[in-house]
Amino acid sequence: MNTYKVSVQETSNNAIIKFEINQFVTKQQSFEFNNIDEAKHSPLAQQLFYLPFVKKVYITSNFIAVERYNIVEWNDVQDEVAEQIEAYLNDGGVVVEEEAAPKKVPVTVYAESTPNPAVMKFVSNKKIVNTLFEFTSIEEAKLSPLATELFHFPFVKSVFLDENYVSITKYDITEWQDITIQLREFIKNYIENGKEVVAPNAAESLDKSTVQLDRRFDGLDDTSKEIINILEEYVKPAVASDGGNIQFISYDEDTKNVSVMLQGACSGCPSSTLTLKSGIENMLKQMLPGKVEMVEAING
């Protein structure tokens, strides 16, 4: 049995704290409870309402947000609440009773072309993963039941998952016009039936959990942290919209070289070299003068 772990995340509203969970606890559904009576189908929410400072509880697939009354500060109680939620989940406590949740979640999936002619992006109206994953073979995909099933299609070369979309790289044996509808319907039905997209322990097994990523970031030098923050703010949103990702690998203080990994639609994309040199490299040189000479990429 996989262990639930809960981490505390601040929000822009200081009355609300998010308790992020390392596994999905609902099948892509969200619930909001304003009082203990409304929470009759959620034993977890009811338990939280027994705390005198809890004003509102919001439960979604991978986190629980709690709004407090002003009788306490979150700093004084948030760790205790996180421990309580974690213990409840690990004791097999029910989050939301089955009858409160529809058996089938209405899902829409649309196909979107990317700058890489070998890659198509399939976008869902539901969040499907907490962090990004890339699988380049069925052996690698053992932590993702969805990716494993996609690899059973003979034309699927690699699978990239992030937030609310799946990017698929195809082999040249077929054209997108012949397979797009088939893949879109398969992904739609898979999500709609509430099937597991990735195993609960996938993020931790691949060193991708929030806690692991934060720990790795804290151990980096200041320039590496600056580079990561620039990539996160200015580059990642653009490449994500194209169905891909750019991941910081390393920074060499002596040579001033930056290594990054291109994933998803960015991997092997004909335009990625141009984007890297004229876009990302120039941006880092301008924003970090004297600290960056060259950006080199490896494909995921």
Please give a structural write-up:
- 32% of the residues lie in helices and 25% in strands.
- The mean pLDDT is 86.
- The longest helix is centred in the last third of the chain and has 20 residues, at 222-241.
- Strands 1-2-5-4-3 form a 5-stranded antiparallel sheet, covered by helices on one side. Strands 6-7-10-9-8 form a 5-stranded antiparallel sheet, with helices on one face.
- The chain has 300 residues and is an alpha+beta fold.
- The chain is globular.
Short summary:
32% of the residues lie in helices and 25% in strands. It has 300 residues and is α+β, with helices and mostly antiparallel strands. The two termini are 31 Å apart.
Main sheet: which strands, in order across? 1-2-5-4-3
User: Which sequence of SSEs, written as H and E, runs from N to C?
Assistant: EEEHEEHEEEHEEHHHHEEHE
Residue stretches low in confidence (pLDDT < 50, at least 5 long) are none
Strand content: 25-35%
Oligomer: single chain
Report the biggest beta sheet as strand number plus sense, adding barrel if it closes.
5 strands, antiparallel
Alpha carbon gyration radius: 21 Å
Give the helices and strands, then pairings.
Blueprint lengths: L5 E5 L5 E6 L9 E3 L9 H7 L4 E6 L3 E6 L5 H17 L18 E5 L5 E6 L8 E3 L9 H6 L5 E7 L2 E6 L5 H17 L9 H4 L4 H9 L3 H20 L2 E9 L4 E8 L7 H16 L6 E6 L1
Parallel strand pairs: 12-13
Antiparallel strand pairs: 1-2, 2-5, 3-4, 4-5, 6-7, 7-10, 8-9, 9-10, 11-12
